[in-house]
Design a protein that fits this description.
Blueprint: E1 11-15, H1 20-31, E2 35-42, H2 49-58, E3 62-66, H3 68-76, H4 89-107, E4 111-113, H5 127-137, E5 143-144, H6 156-159, H7 177-186, H8 203-214, H9 221-226, E6 231-234, E7 240-243, H10 247-256, E8 262-266, E9 273-276, H11 283-295, E10 304-311, E11 314-321
Parallel strand pairs: 1-2, 1-4, 2-3, 4-5
Antiparallel strand pairs: 6-7, 7-9, 8-9, 8-10, 10-11
Helix pairs in contact: 1-7, 4-5
Length: 333
């Protein structure tokens, strides 16, 4: 209550993905008279574009928090284990709540809100998982799930009267009809289709991630960012080789190349850009990478193709024999 006995405005910090449920949670709390700001977590495994787009669509201030060290630490050692792949969902969510709670206290806000719906995702939004996050985060008494609040125990802000529990919702299950009706009522016309959105749930990506963890480790952020780009191989000598699939990949590879990296490109034929982060571990891998550059390039009748090899300001050319891709597919990640 305020000094004159009037109910003061609740100040809520929303964990925000830009998906429909997170937008609805913000709109619902604003309808109840709360001041709401949003938080999104940036890491090599999440795309925050949808969060930025969603925040702009509903006009909510968005705080971007770096989550690199948090999530890489959890991938290396998840206290509650993984989901289907390398996704430490429960620990990741609890850490997000913890980080949001720290910002909440710094800003002088009252509670954290999420767009979670009880039972919508059978593994990560069942009652046991929600309670585990609540208890592990350290901010359980200030974590409000407005879309399913009536099906969950009341939180401190509800008990204190800052949020009217009777005006919160009791949604559950996988149906989207209630959310779509609410979206129409709130004038939300732009929202992405429901999707996981986290690369740690993708089997192919996790194969690359596992390989990186076993060799280079997670110390260099760009190596994790490069996992999204092109084809990846681990050459017999231990060298990592990244092969552009198209112009966009080639440009991304060149943009992320760093001091000491080996860049390989065809000179006399069209072909991909290759990146060997840190250079070749052994000279045979350098030759293999040059052959891969040609094999994944345009079809040619030539017996040999010239490729360029660049490390920093050093430049040289190498003539390599044209080979078939089949010779190299066993090294793909």
């Amino acid at each position: 209550m305020g000094a004159n006995g009037d109910k003061r405005q609740a100040r809520c910090l929303s964990m925000f993905s830009g998906g429909l449920d997170s937008m609805l949670a913000v709109c619902l709390l604003r309808e109840l008279g709360a001041h709401v700001e949003a938080v999104v977590f940036d890491s090599p495994f999440f795309n925050i574009t949808e969060a930025k787009r969603g925040a702009a669509h509903i006009g909510v201030k968005l705080h971007v928090l770096d989550f690199f060290e948090d999530i890489t630490g959890l991938v290396e050692d998840p206290p509650h284990g993984f989901g289907g792949n390398m996704n430490p969902c429960i620990d990741c969510h609890a850490q997000m709540v913890r980080r949001t709670g720290e910002l909440m206290e710094e800003l002088g806000f009252d509670c954290i809100i999420t767009g979670e719906v009880l039972g919508q995702r059978p593994m990560s939004q069942n009652r046991i998982a929600l309670d585990t996050v609540l208890n592990s985060s350290g901010y359980g008494d200030r974590l409000v799930r407005p879309l399913s609040a009536k099906l969950l125990p009341p939180t401190r802000v509800e008990e204190e009267g800052l949020l009217d529990r009777e005006r919160l919702l009791g949604l559950s299950g996988r149906t989207r009809k209630p959310q779509m009706a609410l979206a129409a009522a709130y004038g939300i016309t732009e929202y992405p289709a429901p999707a996981g959105g986290c690369l740690l749930t993708d089997e192919g990506f996790c194969k690359r991630l596992s390989d990186l963890m076993a060799h280079e480790g997670f110390g260099e952020r760009r190596l994790l960012q490069l996992l999204r780009v092109g084809r990846h191989m681990r050459l017999p000598g231990g060298t990592k080789c990244i092969i552009g699939r198209n112009r966009e990949d080639n440009e991304a590879i060149l943009a992320m190349a760093a001091v000491g990296d080996l860049v390989i490109e065809a000179v006399t034929e069209r072909g991909p850009t290759l990146l060997l982060p840190g250079g070749a571990v052994e000279s045979d891998d350098e030759k293999r990478a040059a052959e891969i550059c040609v094999a994944y390039g345009a079809k040619t009748a030539a017996a040999t193709v010239k490729v360029a090899l660049r490390v920093n300001d050093s430049y040289r050319e190498l003539e390599v024999t044209v080979k078939e891709r089949d010779e190299f597919v066993g090294w793909l990640l």
